[in-house]
């Protein structure tokens, strides 16, 4: 797992071999220890180079080992042995040096990086801190402010930035191992004392206390309940204020707390879940590894409203050539200006040239005749979308993939209106489409595996967390959101306020509670949908029966606010009040509170005290319950798909892993018991009726989340 060779007579080269990322598994650690010993005891060897096979130095500790009892040679003494070696050790960094990989490099006396290499300490994103001495060595090497920035954000830096910060000693465009060997030869015999980072004091920093206070405040604010960023600040503070050995002790204590925390488990689950969703599969048996995607060189976007503009930008930024179509000249000109601005700002941020020439604007749908893929993003209206799809079928060359950007419409119905339904898939983007990470790729029963593979591949190219899901009302994300929002409305009827509900959800970790979010996205959006569903009734009927519609409990609160013209931020009034239309700072609104009081009186509802626990259980367990229905229906292939959707697109706190992971952490039996409890209290609310899959999983002993797939298969085969 670590190969040892002698080159140029006197340089020992240690190559980490553990594909795909040369993670520091127990076998690799042992291999390094043995090879270092061999090099140091060989009198012919004057210096040592450590590198990784296949163009990647090291992706860090083996995250898979974290879930088990870690055995084997520990990382810290291994790195210490390298740093205290009496022969120079040079790290030859190609590809990535991340986490434990960079900590290993920091234990070396010199670091040479390829110009395309990326370096970082991303442990914080796994709920950890760089606890193989990284939190103590990096501040000593590059100073406290820069180290705090890297360690608390986990961001990766380019080789150029690493050189500027002083993390690496040299950057090369050529063969990195050759450069490192040459370098190792040149430094053989030099004193190593100044090169042992752990022996350096931290560079002096004026106003250290003020700096730490400021950073801690910033981190607490952005962490939204995550504990690792705070521990990272504490560890760097130890580096700045304590001798190395004591700093290491503090690093160890902080790591022990993080390591056993549920948050680290949740974040590591997210890491693997994000990769697992790329290995999509459909109920038909089609899979990612047996379905070939089609090349997409040229794409088109139809409809340049907010979504179409964002999608055009996302496509153009991947280097694709894009035809952007809008039939009205004025709208086309406005869109062109807006898209160019977005491309320019994006390019400036990324330090590249804007892809302005990549977009061709047209009023004529004929312009898309030779594209490989079209994304239709016209208004959310099935008749309009059908018309556009029929036009596209007539205009596009044979085999062009037709994608619809819809958040709720029936993808299969749309497909059935075209001569080639196998070429149709949904691509549900989230606004703003060039920023938001999530993409639901929606397949209907007739979508071909190739169409799904192509949309998934395109999503990956756009840097999206792309999740393949089946076709149903609301797909996965919005379908689960419905019971969540309905429960929040019911809680208001029963005595809660928007402030109380939002506070409970924001303390849980959502960036915005349900009512602040509703004010941001516009109350009229849901109103329109409810009207379409025939749920909105005019008038002021009172009593319980006025709140039973289509056989189930219904809260008209949102409709009543819309009737008052309260659409949220855009009108300056919604569940909260705002200084003026478009303003973002939500303030409590006395009008709303008296409105709720009058509403309850009208309907004979007596307000009761509702606590945060009830808010969380009612809103979150209703949402999770729908997740179980979705799994049972085969709309999502596994819990990971649902969790990636919620973490990437719906603000579910990442350190809680996603709704299905959270249910697993809370305990399925507990979730079931609370749903049964609330269902007894509210029998007219079907979404509180526990899903049969949840019941069956509990009855089969609540298997851990990574075994749900097997359990679901077994349970289905028994039906
Ligand atoms: C005492 C504690 C000391 C140290 C703590 C640590 O070091 S924690 C680990 C810190 N390292 C990281 O967080 C890096 C994680 N990996 C990545 O960011 C990327 O994988 C990387 C290295 C940039 C490569 O990206 P790429 O897009 O090329 O590949 P991909 O992400 O799809 O990964 C390929 C497969 O490798 C698996 N993998 C990646 N890193 C690790 C790892 N550190 N341990 C175990 N496995 C890892 C990844 O899961 C992929 O496999 P798959 O089967 O598809 O899940």
Description:
It is a single chain. The protein has 719 residues and is of the alpha/beta class. The chain is built from 28 helices and 19 strands. It is globular. The strands form 4 sheets. It has an 8-stranded mixed beta sheet with strand order 12-11-10-13-14-15-16-17, sandwiched between helices. Strands 1-2-3-4-6-9 form a 6-stranded mixed beta sheet, with helices on both faces. A 3-stranded mixed beta sheet has the order 5-7-8. The model has no long low-confidence stretch (mean pLDDT 95). The chain starts with a strand and ends with a helix. The chain folds into 4 domains: 2-259, Alpha-Beta Complex (2-enoyl-CoA Hydratase, Chain A, domain 1), CATH 3.90.226; 298-474, NAD(P)-binding Rossmann-like Domain (Rossmann fold), CATH 3.40.50.720; 496-503 and 512-602, Orthogonal Bundle (N-(1-d-carboxylethyl)-l-norvaline Dehydrogenase, domain 2); 612-717, Orthogonal Bundle (N-(1-d-carboxylethyl)-l-norvaline Dehydrogenase, domain 2), CATH 1.10.1040.10. Residues 20-21, 23, 59-64, 75, 96, 98-100, 122-123, 126, 128, 131-132, 272, 275 line the site of ligand LFKQWZQV.
């Amino acid at each position: 797992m670590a190969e040892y060779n002698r080159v140029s007579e006197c340089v020992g080269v240690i190559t980490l071999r553990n594909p795909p990322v040369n993670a520091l598994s127990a076998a690799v650690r042992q291999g390094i220890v043995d090879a270092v010993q061999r090099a140091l005891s060989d009198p012919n060897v004057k210096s040592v180079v450590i590198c990784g096979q296949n163009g990647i130095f090291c992706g860090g500790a083996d995250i898979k080992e974290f879930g088990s009892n870690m055995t084997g040679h520990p990382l810290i003494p291994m790195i210490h042995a390298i740093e205290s070696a009496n022969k120079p050790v040079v790290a030859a960094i190609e590809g990535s040096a991340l986490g434990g990989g960079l900590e290993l490099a920091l234990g070396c006396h010199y670091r040479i990086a390829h110009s395309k290499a990326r370096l970082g300490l991303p442990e914080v994103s796994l709920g950890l801190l760089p606890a193989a001495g990284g939190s103590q060595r990096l501040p000593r090497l590059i100073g406290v402010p820069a180290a705090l920035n890297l360690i608390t954000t986990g961001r990766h830096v380019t080789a150029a930035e690493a050189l500027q910060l002083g993390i690496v000693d040299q950057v090369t465009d050529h063969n990195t191992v050759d450069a490192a060997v040459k370098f190792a030869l040149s430094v053989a015999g030099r004193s190593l004392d100044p090169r042992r980072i752990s022996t350096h004091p931290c560079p002096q920093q004026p106003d250290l206390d003020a700096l730490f206070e400021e950073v801690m405040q910033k981190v607490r604010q952005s962490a939204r309940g995550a504990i690792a960023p705070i521990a990272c600040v504490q560890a760097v503070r130890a580096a700045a204020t304590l001798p190395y050995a004591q700093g290491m002790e503090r690093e160890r204590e902080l790591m022990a707390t993080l390591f056993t925390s549920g948050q680290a488990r949740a974040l590591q689950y997210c890491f693997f879940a994000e990769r697992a969703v790329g290995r999509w599969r459909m109920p038909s048996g089609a899979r990612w590894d047996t379905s070939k995607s089609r090349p997409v060189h040229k794409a088109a976007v139809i409809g340049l409203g907010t979504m179409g503009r964002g999608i055009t930008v996302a496509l153009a930024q991947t280097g694709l050539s894009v035809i952007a179509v809008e039939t009205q000249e004025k709208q086309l000109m406005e869109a062109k200006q807006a898209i160019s601005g977005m491309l320019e700002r994006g390019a400036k941020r990324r330090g590249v040239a804007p892809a302005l020439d990549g977009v061709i604007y047209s009023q004529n749908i004929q312009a898309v005749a030779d594209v490989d893929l079209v994304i239709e993003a016209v208004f959310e209206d099935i008749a309009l979308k059908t018309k556009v799809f029929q036009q596209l079928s007539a205009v596009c060359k044979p085999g062009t993939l037709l994608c619809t950007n819809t958040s709720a419409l029936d993808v299969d119905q749309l497909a059935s209106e075209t001569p080639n339904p196998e070429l149709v898939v949904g691509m549900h983007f989230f606004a703003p489409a060039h920023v938001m990470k999530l993409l639901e790729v929606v397949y209907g029963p007739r979508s071909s595996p190739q169409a799904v593979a192509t949309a998934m591949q395109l999503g990956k190219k756009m840097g999206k967390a792309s999740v393949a899901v089946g076709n149903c009302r609301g797909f996965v994300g919005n379908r689960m959101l419905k019971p969540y929002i309905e429960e929040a409305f019911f809680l208001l009827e029963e005595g809660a306020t928007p402030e109380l509900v939002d506070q409970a959800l924001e303390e849980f970790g959502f960036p915005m509670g349900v009512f602040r979010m509703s004010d941001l996205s516009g109350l009229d959006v849901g109103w329109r949908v409810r009207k379409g569903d025939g749920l909105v009734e005019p008038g002021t009927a009172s009593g319980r029966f006025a709140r039973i519609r289509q056989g189930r409990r219904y809260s008209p609160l949102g409709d009543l606010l819309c009737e008052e013209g309260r659409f949220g931020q855009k009108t300056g009034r919604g569940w909260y009040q705002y200084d003026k239309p478009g303003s973002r700072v939500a303030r409590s609104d006395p009008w709303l509170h008296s409105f709720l009081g009058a509403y309850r009186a009208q309907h004979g509802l007596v307000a009761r005290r509702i606590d945060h626990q009830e808010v969380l259980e009612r809103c979150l367990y209703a949402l999770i319950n729908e997740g179980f229905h979705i799994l049972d229906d085969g709309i999502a292939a596994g819990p990971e798909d649902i969790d990636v959707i919620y973490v990437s697109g719906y603000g579910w706190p990442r350190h809680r892993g996603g709704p299905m992971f959270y249910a697993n952490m809370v305990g399925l039996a507990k979730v079931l018991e609370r749903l049964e409890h609330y269902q007894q209290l509210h029998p007219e609310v079907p979404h509180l009726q526990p899903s049969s899959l949840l019941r069956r999983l509990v009855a089969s002993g609540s298997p851990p989340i990574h075994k749900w797939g097997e359990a679901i298969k077994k349970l289905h085969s028994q039906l």
